[in-house]
Amino acid sequence: MANAPRPDHTVDFHVRLVDGGPVSPVLVRGTETGDRVRMGAPVGTLTLDESSGRDVLLVAGSTGLAPLKAILEQISLRPDPPRVHLFFGARTRDGLYDLEDLTKLAGEFPWLTVVPAVSDESGGHGFTARLQSGGRAGGGDVEHGNLSDIVAGHGPWDGHDAYVCGPSAMVGHTVEQLARLGVPRDRIRLETFADAQR
């Protein structure tokens, strides 16, 4: 689920197609707008610390963006939102599936900076993302390299609340980097794809 609770009860999903999977092919190829879908309760536990007034660091790998986008939407409803840095990484540019909407949000919210990153530039269709957000004056291209290293290079993050979601290895490396940079472990919230599958 990729949104905060809404008055109209609509929900957004980010679904990565896994060929041969039991659910994603049906959702991606077999549903249309208006179809009814029955679902159970959400499985993940990644939620925004509403009691904190600190700036926020969001680090998403692939469809790990979904819960972080819900947190971003929740932050946007605050009368005085904190500064938010969202790092969105994928293997290739094609994996940055929601970059158009993130770019739009970065243009709407002066407190939001979005940094897209890819680890393998050999794939993808070669578009260039231009982000109009605070802290990236004039926009910027997609960054290249390991997502946790890119996040570390943009620090310091020791004054932020950090939320990390994505593949287990990426989450582990990012948490290690943040701890090394002085972010207290109790201010790092995380969820891996393995956690969400339980």
Automatic annotation (TrEMBL):
Obligatory cofactor(s): FAD
Domain spans labelled Oxidoreductase FAD/NAD(P)-binding: 58-174
Annotated GO MF terms: oxidoreductase activity
SUPFAM superfamilies according to UniProt: Ferredoxin reductase-like, C-terminal NADP-linked domain, Riboflavin synthase domain-like
Classification via PANTHER family: NADH OXIDOREDUCTASE HCR (PTHR47354), PROTEIN RFBI (PTHR47354:SF5)
Protein name: NAD(P)H-flavin reductase
Protein species of origin: Actinomadura livida
